[in-house]
């Protein structure tokens, strides 16, 4: 039993882990993330003496080789990550039943909250009734998939599904699920710690809850009781001083930090914020910054718990018995934030908040921050031509125009002050007679249904609607690529070769992310999104040039409309009510269309062989191969830097002329309404045909061919999945070569599942993003990091090259050196690398052939059954 101490609160006596006693003087030198990980490790049964020794080594800068155990108390998923995970579970239940075992034994052992938020599209906008129309369309498009989710929640009591319209998962996590302190019925209490199958799960770090994003495959292990094994992490400290200037938002700070931390290279590190500047940021501000952790490459963007954290919980209606217990419990555990403390970090940087200015990021990566005034120059650089400044808005969409302006995403809509700022700016624009450019598709999709209440109470909803930013629903929408159809004027401009961009308050702007036809996108704060919609283009300095002219012909500048801090706070005080958060959520739960969806009343899911949405997964079975051992393979793909999971496995709308579109149409799909790839993650046939079809996914084996095409050895052009099938028929394994930051972006397990379906046994890259690396291992694919100067996209690799590697299962160690040998006739190239495996647990997963075979083998072992491959 871990050593504990008693804490007296206003309502009870609680027992908490006695970290000060266990770690002694070591505790105050540790960053808070290590303190929390230590607390969890001890509750998992870790040895206190071994832990203390490892932490002392860590503080001395030594390589500890120590692995921390981590067990979350809850798991968070959304509809497009839960669908493949639940399909895997359904497939595993089938495999258990076919082996003579009871399928019902396979059910999550910890609470799983599912938010249905990733499938809402902006079909209708800037008109009354838009939310209702978009919600009905969403449920109609996804009825079969949603029925499957309802089935899962009924046969597995630990799975709870929140219907469409209840909000975005990370907003729900902040407003509904997070407790900061978990109090058991036995009086034992511990910090709330969780994991989520979305890369932006660290948003919860903003209120002091430790949590991060994992892939769906890792989540399946966690669901069934597997303790997460973590290598002792690198912890980066970011010292904040001063306070944000007037007119600068938390979005601006988040974008600037994303740039600085990407330059620092914090890949897979745990980032923690400290210093006196932290106290000047509200919990909402902090959540915006924490949300962008995957964009700056980190596992966390952690803000330790303090009075602002507790104030947030009170403001969102948490019970007084909980909020009163948090500070004494956290102080007793040594987890309460001290702005004057300076823990030991592996690396650190400092930022004076007072030096910031209004900021954008783009036009192609979230880490490419720039002053808001410099948008025109950024577009010129991106498109490679001059775009002279425009003195006023032209009559039609210009080159360098804005096609989509969206207040979207959990990142910024979870902060009421940012939405209030956008509303105040919109009302002032309405008063001056301004309106958005007629070609701009505008939308507002808050993360919480309570936004309607406080915006209306503040008198801002009508102003937002007047300038085109009426609410279209409560979900991810444009941020995830569900921006819906483009206006005709935008389609025409693109056909004419004009540069057209999106401006959004989201977190990612990769080419094709917002919409398949839009390669340019700028991230901005919600009020800045409204301002750019009024301007209509990017060929001006938005901070100095007029946004338009009022009825008298007088120019109207951004400075005339931008709300002051006291205006925002005044509106916040009169409009925001704690009871709205839970009352509006309960009202959204009462969804008649959702309630009317049927759910099969069977212990095993009845797969329909004619279904276009759901197919029994191919990989939910015993392993037939392993990536370990000697391997002679061929290169299937050779890719460049920044190949995101969006490039690998797209989420957006399906082109009817694509391979996936053709497959669906041949089976009765409507060419005009094929839905998005994300809605087919329960059907491997569709997902296989969508792999690497993003226009920016250039295969350097044949860079002259369209994406997802390959020239065979006899010269014929094959679709990627056809080429992979040929290699499989020949018994030839394949590998992927890639550049830096392979797999950055969303925690999309299909980016790894798809590679497995292509027969990929190893991915050899210059570097990997954390979640995708673990997803590859979860599918039994070996990740190898290139450690010499070899750059795959410049290496002249050919389809006929033989790629040899040997990583034996028996003696495999984390991060061990290896060699990749490429042979072409008498020519031999040796590439130095290391196995990108961090823990013994990951090695065990590779030996088992992946997560799913491992789960199946463990379940069968428990029941005494066996299954032949």
Provide structural commentary:
- The protein is an alpha/beta fold and 869 residues long.
- Among the domains are: 363-575, Aconitase, domain 3; 629-646 and 698-849, Aconitase, domain 4 (Alpha-Beta Barrel), CATH 3.20.19.
- It is 35% helix and 17% strand.
- The protein is built from 32 helices and 32 strands.
- Helix 26 packs antiparallel against helix 27 (684-690) and helix 29 crosses helix 30 (770-778).
- It is globular and about 80 Å long.
- The model is unreliable at 865-869 (pLDDT under 50).
Task: Using the coordinates shown, work out and report the CATH topology of the domain at 363-575.
Answer: Aconitase, domain 3
On the 0-100 scale, what is the average pLDDT? 95
- Assign the CATH superfamily of the domain at 363-575: Aconitase, domain 3
Assembly status: single chain
Distance between the termini: 41 Å
Main pleated-sheet profile: 7 strands, mixed, barrel
Instruction: Write down the overall geometry.
Output: globular
CATH architecture of the domain at 363-575: 2-Layer Sandwich
Low-pLDDT segments: 865-869
CATH class call of the domain at 363-575: Alpha Beta
Strands, total number: 32
Strand coverage percent: 15-25%
Organism: Alloyangia pacifica
Enzyme class: lyase
Domain Aconitase/3-isopropylmalate dehydratase large subunit alpha/beta/alpha: 59-536
InterPro entries: Acnase/IPM_dHydase_lsu_aba_1/3, Acoase/IPM_deHydtase_lsu_aba, Aconitase/3IPM_dehydase_swvl, Aconitase/IRP2, Aconitase_4Fe-4S_BS, Aconitase_4Fe-4S_dom, AconitaseA/IPMdHydase_ssu_swvl
